């Protein structure tokens, strides 16, 4: 078993519970950790035997283009798409952060993490 991790993927997107958030947009950060058996890829040195992190980025970018109300929904959607593309992975963990969330005070980021 092993992990492939992408950290600090940044996007400007139109998510948020409040309508105004979906109109003005905000900056988001996404981290992804995929756990799977990478032994064949390690032995054969073949991209086709592993999870392609360029594909993980593409999946994430596509999901981030679709407006959502909740960070949880974004993370779940990314996990579903990764599992659709790579059915044999053991687990997918996604963290989604929203910069400067509207909490009524100073907050650098709000962050959720889902693992499925």
Structure description:
The structure is a single chain. The mean pLDDT is 97. This protein has 116 residues and is an alpha+beta fold. α3 crosses α4. A four-stranded antiparallel sheet has the order 1-2-3-4. It has one domain: 2-Layer Sandwich (GTP Cyclohydrolase I, domain 2), CATH 3.30.1130. This is 7,8-dihydroneopterin aldolase. InterPro entries: Dihydroneopterin_aldolase, FolB_dom, GTP-CH-I_C/QueF. Its EC number is 4.1.2.25. It catalyses: 7,8-dihydroneopterin = 6-hydroxymethyl-7,8-dihydropterin + glycolaldehyde.
Gap between N and C termini? 16 Å
The side-by-side strand order for the widest beta sheet comes to 1-2-3-4
- In one word, what is the shape? elongated
- Contiguous low-pLDDT stretches (5 residues minimum) are none
The SSE string, one letter per element, is EHEHHHEE
Question: Any guess at the CATH architecture?
Answer: 2-Layer Sandwich
| CATH topology term | GTP Cyclohydrolase I, domain 2
Question: Briefly, what CATH class?
Answer: Alpha Beta
Structural category:
alpha+beta
Q: Count helical runs.
A: 4
Query: How many strand units?
Result: 4
Which sheet architecture does the biggest sheet show? 4 strands, antiparallel
Q: So what's the oligomer here?
A: single chain
Number of domains: 1
**Can you give the helix content as a percent range?**
25-40%
Estimated share of beta-strand residues: 25-35%
Mean pLDDT: 97
Measured on Cα atoms, how large is the radius of gyration?
15 Å
Function: Catalyzes the conversion of 7,8-dihydroneopterin to 6-hydroxymethyl-7,8-dihydropterin.
EC number: 4.1.2.25
Pathway: Cofactor biosynthesis; tetrahydrofolate biosynthesis; 2-amino-4-hydroxy-6-hydroxymethyl-7,8-dihydropteridine diphosphate from 7,8-dihydroneopterin triphosphate: step 3/4
Keywords: Folate biosynthesis, Lyase
């Amino acid at each position: 078993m092993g992990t492939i991790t992408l950290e600090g993927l940044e996007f400007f997107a139109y998510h948020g519970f409040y309508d105004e958030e979906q109109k003005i947009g905000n900056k988001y950060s996404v981290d992804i950790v995929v756990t799977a058996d990478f032994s064949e890829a390690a032995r054969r040195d073949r991209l086709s035997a592993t999870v392609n992190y360029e594909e993980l980025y593409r999946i994430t970018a596509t999901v981030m283009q679709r407006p959502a109300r909740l960070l949880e929904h974004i993370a779940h959607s990314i996990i579903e798409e990764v599992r659709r593309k790579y059915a044999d992975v053991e687990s997918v963990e996604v963290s989604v952060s929203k910069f400067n969330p509207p909490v009524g005070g100073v907050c650098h980021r709000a962050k959720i993490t889902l693992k499925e």
